[in-house]
């Protein structure tokens, strides 16, 4: 049995988050540690977003980031903007525990549900979502314009 705790993110977690992001997608290495630190500060102080981290032996090995999602045609939901578990610790229930935590918080806060996007190649993650009752709704292409 592993000793762990799930808690809200702290600014001091920035290096662990930077390393998790970089492991998850090496292209994110261009977004430096200091910017991750600034983003944690902005998100925790200026938004209603919730970020939970999974801490194992004082090391952050995963996180989930939920943000309020408002539409003109649906009740308020939470949109998962980030969800990463360190590769070495996958398939040990950490992702499920993080999702439990976010789902419980969202339900307590009165949100109508949770939505998330997942890359087509992430089949293992898709199995987790289906198992947890998430329904596959549609294929989409994501577009972005940088300034």
Automatic annotation (TrEMBL):
Residues annotated as domain N-acetyltransferase: 4-147
UniProtKB keywords: Acyltransferase, Transferase
Gene3D superfamilies named in the record: 3.40.630.30
SUPFAM superfamilies, per database record: Acyl-CoA N-acyltransferases (Nat)
Alphabetical list of InterPro entries matching this protein: Acyl_CoA_acyltransferase, GNAT_dom, YpeA/RimI_acetyltransf
GO molecular function, one term: acyltransferase activity, transferring groups other than amino-acyl groups
Keyword Acyltransferase: yes
Alphabetical list of Pfam families matching this protein: Acetyltransf_1
Protein name as it appears in the record: GNAT family N-acetyltransferase
Provenance organism: Paenibacillus sambharensis
């Amino acid at each position: 049995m592993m000793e762990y705790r799930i808690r809200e993110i702290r600014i001091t977690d920035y290096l662990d988050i930077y390393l998790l992001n970089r492991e998850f997608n090496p292209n994110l290495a261009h977004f430096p540690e200091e910017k991750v630190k600034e983003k944690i500060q902005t998100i925790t102080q200026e938004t209603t977003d919730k970020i939970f981290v999974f801490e194992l032996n004082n090391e952050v090995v995963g996180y989930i980031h939920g943000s309020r999602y408002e539409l003109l045609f649906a009740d308020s939901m939470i949109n998962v903007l980030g969800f990463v578990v360190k590769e070495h610790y996958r398939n040990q229930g950490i992702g499920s525990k993080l999702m439990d935590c976010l789902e419980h918080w969202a339900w307590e806060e009165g949100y109508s549900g949770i939505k998330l996007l997942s890359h087509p190649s992430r089949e293992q993650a898709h199995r987790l979502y289906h198992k947890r009752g998430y329904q596959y709704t549609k294929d989409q292409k994501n577009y972005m314009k940088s300034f």
